[in-house]
Amino acid sequence: MSAWIRMIKDEDANEALREVLDLARTPHGTVDNVMRVHSLRPSSMRGHVYLYRAALHDDTNTIPMWFQEVIASYVSMLNDCAYSLSNHWANAAHLMDDPDKAARVEKALKERRPEDEFSGGQLAMLRYAEKLTLQPGRIEEADVDAMKSAGVDDGEILEANQIIGYFNYVNRCLNGLGVTLQGDIVGYYSKDGDAS
């Protein structure tokens, strides 16, 4: 566990905090520092867990999971958030199930040239992600219309907006409190390919 503020260990948690820590547990059975950093304020952790799961892990989302993780990774790259990028790029690369494609996509995103690997609706969503992250006050209806013109429906626009908004939130929380990956298991998927 590592951050610039105190984080409470499982064994030192009171009953109320233990309940929220159990809610925040990963498939690995651990509580990642991104959630544990809220341990001094369990209600904040509870809200964060629900927001994260609604934005990125809701079964009703129709954007493919691999591309949800690409959006998350791109926002985290733009925000220079090593914590989120490490986790969500590992997930994106795993879900692509094509190391060559993953390497090309990573290079395109790092160079801020998503058009090298994406087109259509996916490219429109990545351009929206970049502008909303770096120039939020300059977003206009035309940015949303560009996604619609590329075939992205309103529900998927909302999904993309929520993923982008969530990662801008969490990147700032992590960077602002000096949260590191120390003690975390990176990525959602186990080595054998299943969520664990």
TrEMBL record:
Keywords: Oxidoreductase, Peroxidase. GO terms for molecular function: peroxidase activity. It comes from the Bacteria. SUPFAM superfamilies: AhpD-like. The keyword Flavoprotein does not apply. InterPro entries: AhpD-like, Uncharacterised_peroxidase-rel. NCBIfam families: peroxid_rel (TIGR01926). This is Alkylhydroperoxidase. It comes from Hwanghaeella grinnelliae.
